[in-house]
Amino acid sequence: MTTPVLTLHKASRDLAGRRVVRDLSLALAKGEVLGLLGVNGAGKSTTLRMIAGVLAPSAGQVRVDGKDIGEEPELARRRIGYLPEIAPLHVELTVAEYLAFCARLHGLARAARAAATRAIERCALGDVRNRLIGALSKGYRQRVGLAQAIVHEPDLIVLDEPASGLDPVQAARLRELVRELGVDHAVVLSTHVLPDVVACCDRVAILHDGTLRHEGSLASADSGSAVRVRVARALLADDWRGVATSATPVAGDARQWRIRLVDGVTSSMLAATIVERGFGLEELRAENSALEEIFMAIAAGAPAVAA
Q: Domain segments of the chain: what residues?
């Protein structure tokens, strides 16, 4: 059996005399994106800092590739890429200079320029590679922050609210990039925004008051749910034939539809089908999805939900 990239075993953390994360156990493999959900103050950022090696757990273990990062702290620098909510940028440097600097910090002195170039290409920063970071828009700065997290090709990528403060177009592009990174890496994405999880993640873990209250596949939470879709083209009900819906789509008008998915089909699969058929996907959002119901119940203080 393949060793998970990330394993948390009863990880806890005390801050200011209070236990803010309690007995957290999770595992994550390469090729998976885990959405870490919770309201503000749920313990998400503290959990991410433990995973990234910035904070040591007060109890329990955090392992990367089977090794305890508390016992081998250099492991965090080599195998983990971390983007905190406020990206650690040097605004007086150009994008290329900054990423080469980050590569050298990760021990890639001889290959710093090549590593920076790879990160620039993956994060679509070619047009601004020679511009000062201080002159970039918020969206580009977030991309630079993500680039520094992957410049050393880490096994695990840890992202804390990466779409915070972005406009809808910038946020959508960032989600696409996170989804692409999830193919070759293990990714933990912390957020309190449900659409970010639906768009990017394979699995979801929900924290409340520092305790894991739900963990499971996003497909199992998302399948069978109703979604609202807005498309660029005017459509008829017959145009939806062959799409995996459990009932005839209901039109709000010719471009806005309410669709209930067949069990086992996720909103991401539906989005791919809409794009393939050339309908022109403009919006897709969950309508009272199972994930939303679980999240809202936990946020309201309901008993833990079985995974």
A: 6-215, 226-287
Q: For residue 305, what pLDDT is reported?
A: 47
226-287: what fold? Answer: Alpha-Beta Plaits (3.30.70)
Evaluate whether 294 touches 217 at the Cβ level (below 8 Å). Answer: no
**31 φψ region: left (φ > 0), alpha (ψ -120 to 50), beta (else):** left
Topology of the domain covering 6-215? Rossmann fold (3.40.50)
pLDDT in tens, 110-160: 999 999 999 999 999 999 999 999 999 998 999 999 999 999 999 999 999
Residue 247 has a pLDDT of 67
Does the CA dihedral 73-77-83-87 come out positive or negative? positive
The tens digit of pLDDT for each residue in 216-262 reads 887 655 545 678 888 998 998 888 888 877 567 878 788 988 888 77
